[in-house]
Specification:
Elements: E1 6-15, E2 26-29, H1 32-40, E3 43-48, E4 51-56, E5 68-75, H2 80-83, E6 84-85, E7 95-100, E8 122-125, H3 128-135, E9 143-147, E10 150-152, H4 155-163, E11 168-174, E12 177-183, E13 194-199, H5 200-210, E14 214-222, E15 224-230, E16 242-246, E17 254-262, E18 265-272, E19 276-277, E20 286-290, E21 300-303, E22 314-316, E23 324-329
Parallel strand pairs: 1-14, 7-13, 8-12, 15-23
Antiparallel strand pairs: 1-4, 2-5, 3-4, 5-13, 6-14, 7-8, 9-10, 9-11, 11-12, 15-18, 15-19, 16-20, 17-18, 20-21, 22-23
């Protein structure tokens, strides 16, 4: 007999690099423990183009279930970190991102704390030193440990959880300030970029309130860089009064400067006066002109279509301003 599944929840990945459209850039997987939990609850997770669908054949099985389903996501594109802005610089080795449907953690409709995914959604991977520090604070009455949304009241309970093979996330709370930690599954070769934590009861509650699918978004912001055109071709040496024009009149202007290729070779360059966002869905048109000696508005066309900046060539400015540059050699 075929089971009938209800589409009870949906998660969409969106990225401004693609103009805010669906981002089909993640692999999705889960552990055998998660697979067993989903089987018992008659839940089905179906990754699709730019998102994940959650289906269930018997919604009432979720009504008294307070466990958490963990879905791992990892980017397919090695340049993902180059064209994504997390608000601050992020090292994949330092931690992972936690996305949750729990109402007490994030805003309605999104699975992160702000409008876009930021380093505020990043949590540390637990290690021996962190375990020892947490264990030493269990006698502090102002200190509380939570496994997901469940309080861990005793040190022996916490020690037992740390020895389990399954992956978990914890919240450490003191004076209403919370910090989250992730415990990888034992024997995990490579930790994921992010972990989607779906509280089963919250899925049930959201669906029952409206009797329709509960939708969530995970939204990423695109990185902006200063575009620097570096004129290395000797053909440009014969021109004395060059400029770069934005033919689409989007308000992008360039200022002239000098770029050192090596100590004995310096060339002319033009850099944008504002940062320009990476957008794969836009085709920007910049041209190199020689200014007219006769004072005409448009000068002589030298380069009809300049190449656009690509995410594989970004450089952090050396003056500690945090501004990234895209170097484009022409």
């Amino acid at each position: 007999m075929n089971q009938h599944y209800h589409h009870i929840s949906n998660i969409e990945f969106l990225h401004e690099y693609y103009g805010g459209d669906k981002f089909n850039g993640f692999t999705v997987n889960w552990t055998s423990e998660t697979a067993s939990l989903m089987d018992n609850l008659q839940l089905m997770v179906k990754p699709g183009f730019g998102g994940i669908s959650i289906l269930c054949s018997d919604i009432e099985l979720l009504s008294s279930e307070d466990s958490t389903i963990f879905l791992r996501i990892s980017p397919k594109d090695p340049l993902f970190f180059n064209y994504t802005d997390f608000g601050q610089e992020f090292s994949p080795k330092a931690g992972i991102f936690l996305f949750s449907n729990h109402k007490g953690i994030n805003k309605d409709g999104v699975m992160h704390q702000e409008d876009y995914v930021s380093t505020k959604d990043c949590i540390k991977v637990i290690n021996r030193e962190i375990v020892q520090e947490i264990a030493s604070k269990f006698n502090d009455s102002d200190f509380q440990v939570w496994e997901g949304i469940e309080p861990v009241l005793e040190l022996r309970h916490f020690t037992g959880l740390m020895s389990e093979i399954s992956e978990k996330f914890f919240f450490i709370e003191k004076n209403k300030n919370r910090q989250a930690f992730y415990k990888p599954r034992g024997g995990m070769e490579k930790k994921p970029f992010g972990l989607i934590a779906l509280n089963v009861y919250d899925i049930y509650s959201a669906y029952k309130q409206s009797e329709k699918m509960a939708s969530f978004e995970i939204k990423f912001k695109n990185r902006k860089t200063v575009w620097k055109y570096i004129l290395t071709d000797k053909v440009y040496e014969k021109f004395t009064d060059l400029s770069i024009m934005d033919t689409q009149e989007n308000g992008v202007s360039f200022k002239e400067g000098e770029f050192e290729i090596r100590p004995d070779w310096k060339v002319k360059c033009f850099e944008s006066e504002t940062e320009i966002p990476f957008r794969i869905d836009l085709n920007r048109r910049f041209q190199v002109l020689e200014k007219s000696k006769e004072g005409r508005q448009n000068g002589k066309l030298i380069h009809k279509q300049l190449p656009e900046a690509k995410p594989d060539q970004i450089h952090l400015n050396g003056d500690n301003t945090g501004i990234f540059y895209s170097h484009i050699y022409i």
